[in-house]
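fwd from M.: "can u put these together and see what the complex looks like"

so here's what she sent:
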Amino acid sequence: MRSVASTVLTLVLFATYLGIGALAHDTHFSLGWVLASTLLVWAGPAQIILISTLGSGATVVQTAIAVTVSAIRLFPMVVSVLPMMHTPRTKRRHLVLAAHFIAVTLWVECFRLLPQVPRERRIAFTHGLGAGLCLVCLIATTIGYGLAANLPQLFAAAILLLTPLAFLLSTARNCRQLSDVLALVLGLALFPLAATLHSGVDILISGVSAGTIAYGVHWWRS
Amino acid sequence: MSGFLGDWHALAVLVIAGFLPNEVWRMLGLWLGGGVDEGSELLVWVRAVATAILAGVIAQILIAPPGALASVPDWLRYAAVAAGFAGFVAARRSIFTGVVCGELLMLAGKWWLG
């Protein structure tokens, strides 16, 4: 729990989920529904997309596609984090809950904090961190839902700006190798190009190409 | 939508449009990534792709902002993120300083624009 309290990212998450609660109120979802979405989806951008897309009258299928494209990033995140928790006795089912908790914040914090945790305790540590963050977000969702009608537009804009700022800076801080830095810079630069394709999976195209170029440079230099 | 959770239809929509399309990638990662060695070259590539996809998500929010963020002009959004990054670097990689710098520039810009 001390790790939950010690990170600025908790503050950012809190504010983001205030925004998600308010968004859900404005689009006429029930409080229980948006709390269930925080618990089950547990990914800020996916929830913003889910609520705003459904709220704009899109069909369930259209919404599911938009959500799943934004969630592709979770796949490489899970693949890169779980080996840090693996011990020779770890079964796959022991990692299901830890995998569910993986989202940007936990991905970043695992790389920062797990090396200080003894290997056999890392799964328990991740469960504690994930559950703590989830609780903070459930509270924030409830408060945001209650405050919604009184939030000025400027405040709402400031909350929405938190997501790109915090994602960018926390990823930048966690860059360990040249390939990470290149992936971040190229990923930012290539997305506007990929977006001109209007393929529906623009993020996937720019992400895989930028990541592969970054890895190629890393491989060529070593 | 009535009641605390809403009706069963609303919950079914949540599971089909929100939970499953999101969770499938985590479980695929768990299923396919189980045996990967921590120090392997494959993971360097996977981490680079994860970072680049995340960078794409960041760029998308800035280029096509959701909700109230769209009321902030393009140049001000980009300037706010640049200020945030500058603050982050100047304060020796402090995320907190960076976030505060970015937010303050955005609020100051909006106030100045009136």
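replying to her w this: Residues 8-33 of chain B form the longest helix (26 residues).
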